Amino acid sequence: MSDKSGLMYSAAELDPPFAPSTGDHVSIAPWAHLAAVRREDFVGPGPWQIMRSADISEGYEQTPDANPVHLYDLVTVALDPERLLNNGEPASLARWLDQLAIRSGTRFLHVGSGVGYYTAIVAQAVSRAGYVLALEVDPTLAQRAARNLADWSNIEVRCAPGPESSDGPFDAIFVNAGATDLDMSWLDRLGERGRLLVPLTVSLPEEELGFGQMLLVERSDSHWPARFVGPVGIFHCKGARSERGEQLLRASFGSRKEGLVASLRRDPHSLDPKCWLHAASFCLSKRSPSPNGQTQH
Question: What is the value of pTM for the model shown?
Answer without folding.
Answer: 0.87
